[in-house]
Amino acid sequence: MRHTPNTSRTTRLARAAGIAALVVAAGLAGTGTALAHGSAAPAADQKVDGVMVVAGNSCSWTNASTSAAAPNALTVDRATVNAPGGNLACGGGIAATLNNNPAFTFDDTAGTARTDLIDITGRQSFISCRYKATNIVWDRDGTTRKYINRAFTATKTSGSFLCPGSVTTPAGDASMLFR
């Protein structure tokens, strides 16, 4: 019989915190190291791309459908973000699922966007964590349709006792590129 060392509770909690941070951010998409640069494609595309990097792991998607073209109020269709209809994928052995269709409103004069609710579940191995963040504010990057997040906190709504009660995403760690 082979002896396998036990993983400490501290190690499991640190791993769960990393999973939680990645999960919340993945649903929001994007980072300062954005998926796309430069000006946005024609508004008629009604698509959104995203990438998120947390603790060296990356989650991304491309070509998710939106209900309208920015800067009109719109929702992002989770069925075109999540697999099999979408291509949301993460590194580091993490799987993420967007549980809602986030609604965005835009204020072009102020150069901002606002999201009503992001509801995300993340899994790694046997650990599953679900988080919700509300009223997230995004700042437009120049004259493009790329929006970069301001800091926000997401609250755990369900999942393993190993999941932290809340996760804070720093400003600039998420972005969305509307096309």
Q: How is this structure best described in words?
A:
The structure is a single chain. The chain has 179 residues and is mainly β. 11% of the residues lie in helices and 43% in strands. The protein contains 1 helix and 12 strands, in the order αββββββββββββ. Strands 1, 2, 3, 4, 5, 6, 7, 8, 9, 10, 11 and 12 form a 12-stranded antiparallel sheet that branches.
Concise summary:
This protein has 179 residues and is mainly beta.
Secondary-structure map:
Layout: H1 9-28, E1 47-54, E2 57-65, E3 74-75, E4 89-90, E5 95-98, E6 103-107, E7 112-124, E8 127-140, E9 146-149, E10 152-159, E11 166-169, E12 175-178
Antiparallel strand pairs: 1-2, 1-12, 2-4, 3-6, 5-7, 6-7, 7-8, 8-9, 8-10, 9-12, 10-11
Radius of gyration: 17 Å
Instruction: Count the beta strands.
Output: 12
Strand residue content: 35-45%
Report the average pLDDT across residues.
80
| H-E string | HEEEEEEEEEEEE
Distance, first to last CA: 57 Å
The helix content, as a percent range, equals 10-25%
Keywords summarizing the entry:
179 residues; 12-stranded antiparallel beta sheet; 12 strands
